[in-house]
Fold this sequence. Notes:
By secondary structure, this protein is an alpha+beta fold. It has 23 helices and 23 strands. It has a six-stranded mixed barrel with strand order 4-5-10-7-9-8. Strands 15-16-21-18-20-19 form a six-stranded mixed beta barrel. The chain has a four-stranded antiparallel beta sheet with strand order 14-22-13-23. Helix 19 (684-718) packs parallel to helix 22 (778-804).
Amino acid sequence: xxxxxxxxxCAARKLSRTPGFTIVxxxxxxxxxxxxxxxxxxxxxxxxEPLPFxxxxxxxxxxxxxxDGKLVHLSGPDFIDYRGQTHSFSxxxxxxxxxxxxxxxxxxxxxxLNAAExxxxxxxxxxxxxxxxxxxxxxxxxxxxxRVAVLSDHLWREQFAADLHIVGRVISINGNDYTxxxxxxxxxxxPSTPDLWTPFTFEPWMIEPDNRGAHFINxxxxxxxxxxxxxxRRDMKMVGDRLRAEYPKSNASFGGTAEVLQTRMVETAxxxxxxxxxxxxxxxxxxxxxxxxxxxxxxxxxxxxxAVRTALGAGRGRIIRQLVAESLLLSATGAVIxxxxxxxxxxxxxxxxxxxxxxxxxxxxxxRVLLFSAALALVTGLVFGLVPAFHAxxxxxxxxxxxxxxxxxxGRAAQRTRSGLVVAEIALAMVLLVGxxxxxxxxxKLSSVDPGFHPENLLSFDVTLxxxxxxxxxxxxxxxxxxxxxxxxxxxxxxxxxxxxPPMSSHGMSVTFDIEGQPARAADKRMITxxxxxxxxxxxxxxxxxxxxRTFSAAxxxxxxxxxxxxxxxxxxxxxxxxxxxxxxxTLGYTHDTxxxxxPVTAGGTIVGVVADVRQDGLRAEPAPATYVGWxxxxxxxxxxxxxxxDDLATLTGAVRERVHGIDSAMPxxxxxxxxxxxxxxxxxxxxxxxxxGAFASLALLLAALGIYGVISYSVSQRTRxxxxxxxxxxxxxxxxxxxxxxxxxLALVGAVAGIVAAQWLVRLLSAMLYGVGAGDLxxxxxxxxxxxxxxxxxxxxxxxxxxxxxxxxxxxxE
Length: 815
């Protein structure tokens, strides 16, 4: 230990004598280690950190697998059947997430909450203890049971000042009294980071046989002891096949499946995040190569010192230990600064991270990340330190002494090593530049996709009408009509519409449907459509083009008239490829209990119009078949209003809130945003990954350019005598410049070719992240190659110009 401390003290003294070299190395390593640590923090929080449940690998997500292989929600009757007929699970719990709820607290503004309705066994199934109180008990998810709620930790602290006596307190949610029975721990943010949980109760309409085609229920389950996820998946598939045969009308296009919950939660981000981790690893390797090159140059300048130490009896091992101690000290210092950089980056990602990135709140700098950073410092110190140390330890004492103690070129071996490191840097930079180029071109194409409507001058906001105040369909319609009328009177407002599923929201419900008069379709050809309740003027307000026929009128929004529907072009392309859909009558696979009638009403109607496709699920997702139904035929408590205005939308929010409170003073509005912002947010994840890889590629290019500059510059300094003789014998400045440029461009070309070959690996990983651009896009490869060669030329030109100015007399006198 004392020997190690002695070596480190000596290393610190040596490094302090060359502050410029030390600062450059530390900054290079700090940036690379910081970026790598930050990306690992994201990967750790999203992919590696287990969910805060008991035996999280035993918790499964259940769902229906549609004919396209996509996992979708369960219908109510299907959930009952899967829960009763499977044998792999010790417990199964339904839930519906993303609900809106209004919290009313005396003396405070109404607050909108993100609520989740969960089965009574939800918390026991997950195995999560409460911070205060308890979870739900069996009887509390039955119809007519006392209303109870579990609060999230952040709601408890923000709204109730961490009141330790909150359990048993009655709070008002959606106009109904709920008794608080527990407060969840901060780590529990499932599903969808709710503010509170309430018991999920099956309403009669949810399990009506006619609603077997309406998929809107999520489910989690815990495996029985000894049952594997694969066995559970086979069990679900077997029951799904049985339901498909028993209910071909609703289930022919759906099967049952199960996935480990953590895998299900992160599957959309895993490939992209692991690719980013690999990319930042390349940046770290380039940084190591750069610092190794700097240390090789420094070691060459210390040949006389090393020769003297060798002459005085220092062994090769002692020399290597001393130089490796210097490299480890550099990497440790870089790691400490890099950890601070990583913390800053992580805080930014958590605060401003892209919409839809799973487990965003779980990302942090924890013990595992710090251990990773320490290991990274050790490995990088050895990687860039050993090569220069071995070269320096092989210093030829006789050659150095013969040279008059002036130092040598470091030998051809050292020069080849330096050149090889630069070629490796360029190859790695080429890989990253190709990946970044493909993502940039993909993002540009994605950004130019037509959303199917005109988002300019459109404001949207959501409201949730509490069932206690608005129990009947007519109550919901009365509020909707009143607010639309009031908002229309606001100066500058052109039109106001309401819908349950605005563009870019993915709220919609998918159902099966039939076309009257057509024979029953084969099991694998069942028709599926999204259902979008909307007021009649939604199309005009959003600017959705009418392709054929007409939209429904205001009178046709409600029951009591012959029902009509409007469909999109995607539905026509898939289900009416060679015929006119206008006049066809469709029956949707769900019913609606209007409360005022004695029996549910079958949904559907005559197709009166076809409108252009709207990107409901974001710009990247291709439009799916969709059917617009009149708002009054399927009124839902959660609704979105869209307002088109001629004036500045920033000033409109206050008027909107005033009009809402004029109708109901306890009604909060939420998710207020411009539709342009909604469109932008729909591509937030591609933007995030593009910026991330672009930053890595830019850093890699800068480091590679510095590497080329360093090698060529050092080569020029070692060839001063040779260049002086060439100039003395008649070589022109242009010829000398070409000679030196040729050396740099040769390294760049070799590295670029190697990088293009290596890039084939990266582009295969990126293919799933690309939109409208092939993984082998020749334009991207050509542009990136040209940019890299251009940067290499510039990095070589500066020392080449210095070489052309060598004075032969001065060069010879120096020798």
